[in-house]
Design brief:
With 83 residues, this protein is mainly alpha-helical. The chain has a domain of 43 residues. It starts with a helix and ends with a helix.
Length: 83
């Protein structure tokens, strides 16, 4: 086991691209997070448009849209809280 660790350490030490790997992985992670956020935002707009279809046309920013949806909540609770 110690030999395997020594071999791995030496192999990593000889890797010329080792400094670039964390940067490449970070960029990949940011792109993946951006894609997931856009996917979730589209789903929230799609699902919530059944209650308030005009809201997607009024608010175009995904972050603000989700905050408004969180503020309004369920259609039933929104109507009772406004009365």
């Amino acid at each position: 086991m110690g030999l395997a660790h020594l071999f791995s350490r030496n192999k990593i030490a000889l890797d010329v691209n080792r400094n670039d790997k964390p940067i490449i992985q970070s960029i990949s992670l940011i792109e993946l997070l951006d894609k997931d956020i856009n996917t979730f935002s589209m789903r929230v707009k799609e699902w919530y448009s059944w209650h308030y279809p005009e809201l997607a046309r009024i608010v175009t920013d995904n972050n603000i849209y989700v905050k408004i949806v969180h503020l309004i909540g369920n259609r039933d609770t929104c109507e009772t809280s406004l009365e």
